[in-house]
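Hi team, as promised in this morning's meeting, here are the two structures we talked about. I've kept the exact order from the run log so nobody has to guess. The first one is mostly here for context; it's the second one we should focus on when we meet again. Sequence first, then the predicted structure tokens.
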Amino acid sequence: MMNRVAVSGSTGRLGRLVCEVVEQHPDFELVARLRSTSDPDEGADADILIDVSRPDASPGIVDRALSRGQQVIIGTSGWSAHLLDALATKLESTPERGIIVVPNFSLGSVLGTALARIAAPYFDAVEVIEAHHPGKVDSPSGTAVRTAELMAEARGGRPVDAPFAEQPARGELIEGIPVHSLRLAGVVAKQEVRFGGPGEVLTVTHDTHSNEAYRAGVRAALEAVVSARGLTVGLDALLGLGGIAGDGGAR
């Protein structure tokens, strides 16, 4: 039986790609392309809701999908650890439902975060620099937030050496790690994690040159969400990288 899919945020860069992936998959049918002006009841008959909308709209969209009994993929930024914990608690009352949250659909990005997590305990100084196209409304990116959270977890509570962190130019502190955001024409997405130690600097860099980088990850999440239960955070959990990247599994 075909799985019916609605895509929220369908007119955005990622939304258009998601719609293509759904339409090209033999086991799924795209039944609704949702945008900010869509009627709230549009797409209510879908089995799966993929949300790649805006951070301010995403929680309401996800709540509505859960109330309809839909499986959900969240590709929208802004879902902090606090919001994810609340979402996991909400899912406890509906154990037959599943949500997959994907901060970044790129395989290279997921591996970059995994490598950063491995390196994090070995350096006192850690900073993140992320750059995206000018149309990205949220800063820092969901990928940068997730990377900082996983690195802080890997450090076991040991603080990062971040002098003068109270100065605005030093970036926003995420779990004690400075994160700097750039929004530039000509950029799709880029993240650097820099580790400083005596006499050396290690940099883990990932560049996204086009939205094609997200296609395989979107397909993996789409196939996995059909049988998902509870809350799964991170593409790494779907790719068998959970042991490397840390707590990316069901919550």
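And here is the second protein, the one for discussion:
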Amino acid sequence: MKEFNQPISGNDLARFSGPNTFMRLPQATSLEGLDVAILGVPMDIGTSWRSGTRFGPKQIRAESAMIRPYNMATGAAPFDKLNIADIGDLAINTFNLQDSLRIIEESYGAILSGTAVPVAMGGDHSITLPILRAMARKHGPVAVIHVDAHADVNDEMFGEKETHGTVFRRAHEEGLLIDDKVYQIGLRGTGYGPNDFKEPQSWGFQHFPASELWNRSLHNMGAEIRRDIGSRPVYLSYDIDSLDPAFAPGTGTPEIGGLTTMQALELLRSFKGINLVGCDLVEVSPPYDTSGNTALVAANLIYEMLCLLQDRPVVPAAPAV
């Protein structure tokens, strides 16, 4: 019987000790034999407001020590079915955003040359564009579930074309997405003009504003999205600012009136069975939440992503492009 990596139990070693890896999993120096590779991208040079997401991966790992391996609500047991390890942080160039995006894309190219599904801890949201570039080379254009307060479809910010607020416009322009299978969930806040969200809708993006989700269960909506996607390859990008700041204040661009943690769990669990080819959790900024609660929420949402990967169908990859 094949044995998989297991998190260190809190009954074997106190949770405040041990390795600073996600859920105190083994740290891998090779991708060989891995089904899932968890990695950090400690970067905040693509952000436009409050910095600090460079510290996100470290604190998410620290708060993940509290999570146990079995999901008592869903019955999922990802560490019994998948070989998962933490492969550490990408060595980004903290003084150069363009070089950092290049490093991320090349690193993902190497990861995706194997069989491991990458799960990234950000870092600001600019990390998702180079990831999607690498994803498209392996899988072709992908469906995207994008949970966020912001659509991230600006044309430029301060004259720059590649920032945390331009990700999905660039991805659309570069043909990385199945445009009518992009689902942006939790959008809200103020805008620069009345048409901020209308243009991406004209591309085919489907919008689910937070104000239409208040006081609602998200299970049925998520199930409809899952059926609409079918067997297509899906990338899941989860910005922690999709949550109301009451639940996740430690982020760079907070917006009131967001999702609750309960809705976040419902939403992720409703995607069971999707063909998830990668995911990220971004924009955790520990300096703005000294309690650690935002990172704790992020760690638990990443665990829920691992539970989704447990039930990922086996679908052949598209020819390389």
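Starting points for discussion:
The CA atoms of residues 103 and 310 lie 29 Å apart.
The radius of gyration is 18 Å.
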